[in-house]
Structures are given as structure tokens and as C-alpha cells.
Amino acid sequence: MNRQRQGVILLRSESDDIYDAEPRLRTKKSYPSRRYFMVVTVLGVLFLGYIAIAYDFKPARFGTKAIDTLALSLSFQSRFYVVVIDAGSTGSRALAFSFYESVLGGNLILDGEHFFQTKPGISAYADRPKESAKSLTVLLDKVKAVIPQSEWQHTALSMRATAGLRLLPGHKADDILQECRKLFEDSGFQVSKNSVSIMDGTDEGIFSWFTVNFLLERFNTHNPGNTVAALDLGGGSTQVTFSPDASQEKKLDGHIYSVNIFNHNMSVYTHSYLGMGLMAARKEIITHGLNLDNVNPRATSEIRSECVNPIVSTEWSYGGLNYLVKGPISGAHKLVKNQNFAGGEVDRPIVNFQACLNIIEKYVKGIKNKPEGLKDHEIYAFSYYFDRATEVGLVDPFFGGVVQVSALLEMAKSVCDYPNTDQPFICLDLTFIYVLLRDGFGLAPTTKLYLYKKITGHELSWALGAAFNIIQNGL
Questions:
Q1: For residue 120, is the peptide bond before it cis, meaning its omega torsion is within 30 degrees of 0?
Q2: pLDDT-wise least confident of 203-217, 329-343, 388-402, 452-466
Q3: Catalytically active residues, by annotation
Q4: Is 178's pLDDT higher than 70?
Q5: Residue 85: exposed, middle, or buried by beta-carbon count in 10 A (0-12, 13-18, 19+)?
Q6: 162: buried, middle or exposed (CB in 10 Å: 19+, 13-18, 0-12)?
Q7: Counting beta carbons within 10 angstroms of the beta carbon of residue 342, is it exposed (0 to 12), middle (13 to 18) or buried (19 or more)?
Q8: Are 408 and 392 in contact (CB under 8 A)?
């Protein structure tokens, strides 16, 4: 059963020839009359040669880009801004986007982006809601530093909390949201009663998918088969989103949404798996078999886990609870050849990979409604997928890269065989990611994952999709 996702994205991309929907959020400056603008445009053409040299435009970009640059520099059009705060389970991130309308065609152009973050996330202040709002002030101060003060009152400010708040008891989440609303109302930015809320997992998935495909320019042909799948691994949940073909739609009934992308309807599958985010899964894996229902939130619980090296002893906090995580008392060991000139063997403490794997497989087995057909799509994975891959050298931290699912298994086995107190959970995390992809999402060992943090200099997250939605539909 298809469900219509109303007003998700209704704007045209830069490459489209026709632009029907104008954004509601406009700057206070208006455009000059048509005749005046035509005169100025003619005069501006005389400067195009100079502009091309000064800005070193490539031939393909010369023309529209040059005219837009000239119009901006002469103040014939103005930038406008949208600020989106992603209140995640492990941290809060503020993204300040700037846009303008292209002179030729009126297409909405993403002009710039500023990214700021702070830790921990607001859900860490479950029993101190005032401090949750206070933690966001540093982000608002940084945003104000990059947006002209004259534009604050015209700049939409929105905060969407994700799985971290979804996992809190309702009254605690409401108290935090109320304090954040008070902060926003005094911020000087444009806000409404809907500016602060908990984001639905469906929106999170669709907005992430939009961001990836928009930045890759996959919407230019309006062909669903040209789009890529988006896998977003957060702290509390993970989202899988792609545009299925007709045969796949039949197997995905109940999670198909009809979305309007630049005035073109597309069927999109998205599913948010609450509890399958990296931190939520880590908590369940290390506390496997333990009853922690009556734990004092001010106390620190000592936990011994099969997925942690025997020499590890590290403090870790999640969901308002504190843990002292250690490896098993009778942990596994392995004799390895000594690398020095003396030769011989040394006894190395290791994670019992099979024991850890069994625990994780049991946890991931709880996934229902698997994303049938995902393996048939080009897959872009980001957030914690990218972070963990870079930390073990699978992809370049600046440029990203492509790996097969099997590479994650081999790397997981490798790091589980090495005691690393600097990355005490790397064995657990990589093993979980591999099992999630294999058992939870049905990917084959040879399936390729495109792992990136940014595309064309812009962050891969749901925030850009949310910004477009605000422009079209308001706060």
C-alpha cells in the first residue's frame, strides 16, 4: 500500500529547464523590474569575459554560473538561509545552508553550508532538561557568526531530534523539547510552534536519501532507476531508503511512500530500525543476558562482555546510564610469533570472535521487515558506516571510497585479534555492522558499499533534505 508523503520535496534541481514552485522563504530584498533587469543583464554580459578569467570558470559552468555570480555581486539577487539542528543520540549538529535562485530559470541553488557539532546529544540530559537546551547555545552562537544579523529574523531555524529522544520515556523527552523551544524563541531566528520536535524515522530516511541523490545529481532524469540507495547508521537507529522497481514494491508492502521530487512523483521505500543504531546495539550487546532494569542512573554498572578484549577496562555512557566495560574474566588468548629478533611466541589476549559473533547474530535476528531488493541497488552508506571504516583504514577519511561487505568481515576478525585500548569497542562495532548488513539487510559478501562523509563538499545527512522541505512548506 503506497502512502503519499505530502510536501516532502517540491522544488526543481539546477539542471531543470522549468521551475514551477517558488520557495516560501524569501529574503526581504525583492528583484528589480523585468526591464531594468534586462538592461543590467546586457551590461553584465560585457563583464562576463572578466568574470570568467577572475573565477577560472570551466566552459561547462561558464554562462549561468557567471551570470549568477555577477547578479549576486551586484546585489540584484540575495542569498537566504535555513538552519537545521540534528539532535542525534550521540551529539548535536547544526547545519547552516545558504541558497539563491538562479537568474536563468529561477532554479534553487545550494550555495554554501556551514557545519558545527557538539557532544553529548541532548538525550544525555534526560534528568536535566535545562542543560540540554544550554548545550545547544554554543551551536547557535556559531551559526550566528556565519549568517548576517540582518538576516536572522528571515532565517528559519528548526531542530529535529532523532532516535536518542525516541528511546527516552515520553515525559523526559517532552521536558527536553520544551526547554529547547524556549531557547529557540529567544534566538532571534524565525521559528514556529513546530520548529522543535522529534523526527519521524520515515522523514529521516527520505530526507537522507534525497540529500545523497541530490548531491549526486541523480534526480536530473526523473528516472527512479538512476537513483541510489541510502544507508544511514546513527546512534539509536538506522535507516534504509531506496526507490524500488515494480517487482520489489510488491515485496515491500507497508513501507512504500509516494514522494514528490521536483514535481515528479516517485515511489520510495524507507524503514527506520529503532534500536539498530550503533550505540543502541552496542549497549544491548555488552549487556547481553543481564537484567539492568533497576539500575541507579547515578551509579556506574560494571559489565563484562565477550565482545571486548580481556585487557580492556573503559567507562562508557549511553541513554543516561554509566558503565564500566571490561572483557571476560577468563578471556581468550592466542599464541603469536614475536616480531623482534629473539623469535619465539607471545601470548596475546584476544576477543573470542565466534562467541561475540553469536551474541550479535542473536540480536540482529530480531530485525523484521527486511529491505528486499536493497542488494540490487547502488548503495551509499554514511554516518557510523563511514566513521568505523575510516578508523580501521578501509577508506580514506577525506575522500571516502568503495569496499565490499566481505572486507568488513575480514577487518572485524583482524581487529578482534588485537588488543586496542584506544578503540575498545572497534571489534564489537565492526562485527555488528557486518552482521547488520549480511543478516539484517541481506547483502552478499561481494556487495559494494560507497562510503562517504561528504559529496561535493556537503555533509551526507538528512539535514539538507529537511532544509529543502522547509523552503517549500515552511516551518
A1: yes
A2: 329-343
A3: 204
A4: yes
A5: buried
A6: buried
A7: exposed
A8: no
- Residue 460 · residue 211 · CB < 8 Å: yes
Q: What CA–CA distance (Å, rounded) separates 435 from 274?
A: 16
- Residue range 235-281, pLDDT digits in tens: 999 999 999 998 888 888 789 999 998 888 999 999 999 999 999 99
Q: What is the pLDDT of residue 197?
A: 94
Between CA 38 and CA 437 the distance in angstroms is 56
**Grid coordinates belonging to 79:** 542569498
Cα–Cα distance measured from residue 314 to residue 132, given in angstroms and rounded to the nearest whole number: 25
> In which residue are the cell numbers 555488552 written?
286
Look at the block and give the residue holding cell 607471545.
346
Among 332, 281, 284, CA closest to 306: 332
Q: Which residue do the cell numbers 536519501 mark?
A: 209
Q: Which of 71, 75, 81 is nearest to 112 (CA)?
A: 81
Scan for cell 536493497, then name that residue: 374
User: Comparing 23 with 352, which gets the higher pLDDT?
Assistant: 352
Q: What does the pLDDT read at residue 199?
A: 92
**Residues 326, 302: Cα–Cα separation, whole Å:** 8
The total number of residues written for the chain in this structure: 475
